Backbone:
């Protein structure tokens, strides 16, 4: 088996990209050796990413953008098809292909050009109105901002509701605002299939994949490759960003992206244990997925420690970028609060992990002590039965309201009716719910678990151990402060929270991760197989190395059946050349923009 793998690697891996570095406004040699070139000296240079442009073909520069910037070295006496690219711009960064005819076959080589800016000092002289010269010192520094084609992948996205779904949507919108192209891939939800466009032209692919459990798709790895390859190629994706350890589709995307030579990022939103069967299996899958992933993002430092231990990662390739909240969506409105009672609000999925059993013990104890205390509970889940039994047993129908599942735009209307926000989670990497409650001006009481102590300043949250007695004591303290009027006003709490976490800041930090990843090497297949075997153990590593070989073979079959070159390029709704927000020029421009939007909205994908 080892001999066959070695032969396979020798035959098929020789075409991996070479990465070269160029400096802004300087020149760079882009090498290509064309052995046994045909007698007509026909060869071609093409920029493939982020958008395909033919630079040079058969002794002629074809692109106006590269006119007078390309120098050729080929003569009858050499086999040098290299080109010298002069006056480099930030837009020149990308993937290039050199192709030529040798006998009856076409040969090609790929390379990636990374562009950076030099650091220097300059002096600019400016004449003064009164005569003389003033010298200004300026810095020419930094790296030109590279625009990425990003594919967010997860089983969890709208219309499903939750923290992961909100994170993906808000981050995507802010990345679009910063000039990047973003598409989202998830599985179909009921009748929601195919391609949909959301705000600002955000494109979502709802793939027809079977859901296995709790909105996570079943996986055989290979069945999703044709669909994902279709998306990655048509959208000219450069970075694949998967979300959530629970998402089988996210793990599949990371696996296929590495097979296709794409850079990858993974964001972990959850904490896991190490002892139960479910955690052991998930942690092993995470180890395989992340062993050759370029970078990992966690939402808290506690989550980072947990992920590093679970997946045996180098902490240097794991960053902490917290979640955020849109402060304009969660503003306080004290007029909605009743003056004759105190309301405790709970907005959560009603599942064991959210501590609903603790809530079932808190409700009767506090309602017995405080006749004016009411509970307002939003959310749905299997533990709803626990709360209904408590309400029935203690006859609290007029003091405990169960609102059921809430739409995202209804959450703020529920929060502003309360005085105290209660979170009873048993495990949490980063609790967005307490951030939303604080943004609406509520006093926050929460269990001290996971990454929750990192979220809010100590004077804005009351932390308790995850027991009924401790939570009741913490709530009693906050209720007493509420009655005495010694709590901060909702407006002052909102003013402090609104600047703690913003999605624009999250997008800016994530963009730096993409920039770092874009300059990293994608492991060729032979090194990827060695990494799997060394990182995942001799048994699991060998199994997944064999699966990686099969995935690569399947990719070769798909590329033979439908070559990348003949696949239609999708219309860019977002990104540097996105048409969604382009300003129309006159009546003709308005008609053109309308036609573009209608074409984008009608776009479908097929294999």
Residues:
């Amino acid at each position: 088996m080892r001999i066959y793998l070695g032969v396979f690697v020798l035959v098929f891996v020789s075409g991996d990209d070479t990465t070269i570095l160029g400096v802004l406004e300087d020149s760079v040699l882009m090498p290509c050796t064309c052995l046994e070139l045909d007698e007509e000296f026909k060869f071609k240079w093409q920029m493939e990413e982020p958008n395909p442009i033919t630079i040079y073909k058969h002794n002629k520069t074809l692109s106006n953008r590269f006119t007078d910037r390309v120098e050729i070295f080929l003569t009858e006496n050499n086999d040098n098809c290299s080109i010298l690219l002069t006056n480099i711009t930030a837009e020149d960064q990308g993937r290039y292909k050199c192709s030529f005819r040798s006998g009856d076959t076409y040969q090609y080589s790929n390379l990636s050009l990374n562009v950076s800016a030099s650091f220097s000092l300059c002096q600019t002289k400016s004449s003064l109105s009164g005569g003389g010269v003033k010298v200004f010192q300026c810095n020419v520094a930094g790296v030109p901002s590279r625009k990425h084609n990003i594919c967010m992948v997860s089983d969890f996205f709208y219309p499903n509701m939750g923290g992961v779904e909100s994170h993906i949507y808000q981050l995507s919108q802010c990345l679009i605002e910063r000039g990047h192209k973003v598409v989202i891939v998830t599985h179909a939800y009921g009748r929601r299939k195919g391609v949909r466009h959301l705000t600002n032209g955000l494109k979502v692919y709802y793939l027809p994949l079977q859901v296995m459990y709790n909105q996570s798709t079943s996986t055989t790895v290979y069945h999703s490759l044709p669909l994902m390859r279709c998306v990655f190629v048509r959208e000219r994706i450069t970075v694949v960003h998967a979300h959530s350890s629970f998402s089988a589709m996210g793990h599949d995307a990371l696996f296929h992206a590495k097979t296709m030579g794409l850079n990858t990022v993974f964001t972990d939103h959850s904490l896991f244990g190490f002892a139960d069967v479910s955690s052991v299996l998930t942690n092993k899958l995470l180890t395989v997925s992340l062993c050759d992933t370029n970078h990992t993002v966690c939402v808290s430092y506690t989550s980072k420690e947990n992920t590093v231990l679970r997946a045996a990662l180098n902490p240097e390739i794991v960053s902490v970028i917290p979640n955020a909240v849109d402060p304009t969506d969660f503003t306080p409105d004290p007029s909605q609060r009743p003056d004759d009672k105190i309301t405790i609000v709970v907005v959560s999925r009603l599942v064991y992990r959210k501590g609903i059993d603790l809530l079932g013990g808190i409700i009767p104890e506090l309602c017995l002590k405080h006749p004016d205390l009411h509970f307002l509970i939003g959310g749905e889940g299997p533990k709803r039965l626990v709360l209904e039994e408590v309400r029935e047993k203690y006859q609290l129908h007029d003091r405990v309201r169960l609102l059921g599942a809430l739409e995202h735009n209804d959450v703020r209307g529920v929060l502003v009716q309360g005085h105290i926000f209660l979170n009873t989670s048993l495990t949490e990497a980063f609790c967005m719910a307490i951030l939303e409650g604080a943004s609406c001006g509520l006093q926050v009481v929460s269990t001290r678990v996971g990454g929750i102590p990192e979220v809010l300043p100590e004077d804005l949250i009351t932390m308790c151990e995850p027991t009924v007695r401790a939570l009741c004591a913490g709530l009693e303290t906050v209720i007493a402060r509420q009655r005495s009027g010694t709590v901060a006003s909702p407006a002052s709490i909102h003013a402090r929270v609104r600047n703690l976490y913003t999605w624009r800041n999250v997008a800016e930090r994530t963009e730096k991760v993409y920039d770092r990843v874009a300059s990293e090497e994608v492991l060729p297949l032979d090194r990827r197989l060695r990494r799997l075997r060394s990182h995942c153990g001799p048994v699991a590593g060998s199994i997944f190395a064999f699966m990686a070989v099969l995935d690569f073979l399947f990719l070769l079959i798909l590329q033979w059946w439908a070559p990348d070159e003949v696949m239609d390029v999708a219309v860019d709704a977002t990104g540097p050349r996105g048409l969604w927000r382009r300003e129309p020029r006159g009546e003709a421009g308005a008609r053109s923009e309308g036609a573009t939007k209608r074409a984008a909205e009608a776009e479908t994908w097929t294999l």
Remarks:
- Residues 538-561 form the longest helix (24 residues).
- The radius of gyration is 28 Å.
- Residues 334-501 form a domain with the Rossmann fold fold (CATH 3.40.50.2000).
